[in-house]
User: What shape does this take?
Amino acid sequence: MSINAKSVVSNFYMSDFFNELDNVKKYLHPEMELFWNARTGYSHMNREDILTMASEASKSFDSVRCDITHLLEEGDNVTIRFTYFVRMIENPNEEVPVAHFMAIWSIKDGQMHRGYQMSQPAEEDKEAMISYRGVNL
Assistant: This one.
C-alpha cells in the first residue's frame, strides 16, 4: 500500500531528521531540489545539502520539534506551514521557536521531489503562532 503525498511530507518534518539522518534518504527523492527563500537570502539545495545541513544543526540542537499548522494536498502537491522549536545543547530545559516555514512540495516515486520554501525567524509571541485547529497556543 502506498502512502499518500500529505503523509510523506508530514512524516518527514515530524521525523526529527536532524538527529535521524536516515529519514532524509527515506523521504527525499535522490534527485530532489529545494528552492528556499529566507531572510538570509536564496538557497538552491539538493539531498546532499540537506544531509549536510541536518548533520551540522544536530551539533547545536538537543532536540527539534515541528509544529504543523496547515497541511494541504492536491494531487501530487502538498503545501505545509509549520514552526520549528528547538532545545539547544547549552540549555536543554528551554524550548524556543526558531523559524516559521511555508513550503510546497511535489511528490515523485513516493518521495519529496521538488520544494519551494519560504521562512522567517519566529516571534516569541504565542499570539503569532496559530495552531492547526485555529486556536491560539
